[in-house]
Amino acid sequence: MKQHLALIFSISLLYFLACKRNSLPKNPTDNSPTPSEFALSVVLDSLAHPWSMAFLAENEVLVAEKDGILKRILLDSKQVFPVAGLPTDRFQGIRQEDPRDNSGLFEVLLDPNFLENRWVYLSYTAEDETGMGTKVIRAKLNQDRLEKIQTLLEAKPFRKDLFHYGGGMTFGNDGKLYITCGERFYNEIDQPDLPVAQDLSDMRGKIYRINPDGTIPADNPNFGSNAIPGCFALGIRAAQGITRRPETNEIWFSEHGSRQGDEINFLQAGANYGWPIETTGTYRNETYQAPQLPKEDFFSPRFSWEQTVAPTGLCFYIGKEFTEWTGDLLVAGLSRGSLWKITFEDDRPLGAENLMKENPIRLRKVVQSPGAKLYILTDEKNGKLIQLIPA
């Protein structure tokens, strides 16, 4: 009898601790129950590391492949049409089958007034004689061809390494374009004395806010006369995902840590997110010591994981397909393969649940269609476009 009571007590204690841990603004590792609310339906495969997608209509999308191709796809018939006219300066060297090779074609994004003006926005790895870097352009989509290309941003200086370009883009409710640019270093030991993410004269390691034509909004934060134009926030390591929260019009973004330290951040004008002076993880190189800079009030993440997730493309779900998820943040994870659902109370994340714990697959992006359907893109050589079907 005593052994029986001890067993009941132990189980109850474990359950209590698990519930208490779930209430913290960090994920409960991978101990969440596997949900039964959805099934996975492969819509299309044979995509070369798809990075992002934009809906032209409910059943018609543009898909940007990391390997450098833009495609228009009819979801019903599964017809695929390559889009011509991509920028000629995009990196077309041999990409490595190595998850650390971040080069390629990144975000494809439609102008909020696309039906009237046909503008499409692309971020990608550009190359010149000095190396590679993040570049953003816009072009008119004329049938299946890009025309009238305009350069909006180039994150100079370029370098030869293939790491941490960023490339996330979203439009705010203010009509401005928000862009993430990574700092381009895989190992923090390679940083200069003044880390690039803290150097306001260096374009890397920042988030930008620009007008759709590339000009700088007059109400952007003022970082001083020597700061690069368009900078909206700094202290960024490797942010790939950025999205608008429809309920509040806030901008949120995902951030890769070095060793652990993966985060979800709320974007504030003029904020410094601290990298590499402060991190919720540790450094890749144990001998690295961040420089002592003048005291700064760094903006803390709203959520961080205890294990490596490598969070990327994310979206707030608003719709009726998954009613209980309305208002939740869905985040694709590259490392270990995961899809996270983060619940909120106002602007405070309460906890996270891994929706694909028992079916891990390396994910690059989660996207909601105009009709509130949910799709995910897998980061594989034989990449897949998958729809989540309510059970």
Q: Could you state the order of secondary-structure elements as H and E?
A: HEEEEEEHEEEEEEEEEEEEEEEEEE
Determine the strand fraction and express it as a percent band: 35-45%
Percentage of residues in helical conformation = under 10%
Structural class: mainly beta
Shape: globular
Instruction: Figure out the total of helices.
Output: 2
DSSP strand count: 24
Return Rg in Å: 21 Å
If you average the pLDDT, what whole number results? 89
Which ranges are low-confidence, i.e. pLDDT below 50, for 5 or more consecutive residues? 1-25, 27-35
Distance between the termini: 42 Å
Major sheet, described briefly? 4 strands, antiparallel
Largest sheet strand order = 1-24-23-22
Describe the structure.
With 391 residues, the chain is mainly beta. The strands form six sheets. Strands 1-24-23-22 form a four-stranded antiparallel beta sheet, with no helix packed on it. Strands 2-3-4-5 form a four-stranded antiparallel beta sheet, with no helix packed on it. Strands 6-7-8-9 form a four-stranded antiparallel beta sheet, with no helix packed on it. A hairpin with a 4-residue loop joins β4 and β5. The longest helix has 21 residues. It is globular. The N and C termini lie far apart (42 Å). The N terminus is likely disordered.
What are the defining features of this structure?
391 residues, four-stranded antiparallel β-sheet, 2 helices, globular, disordered N terminus
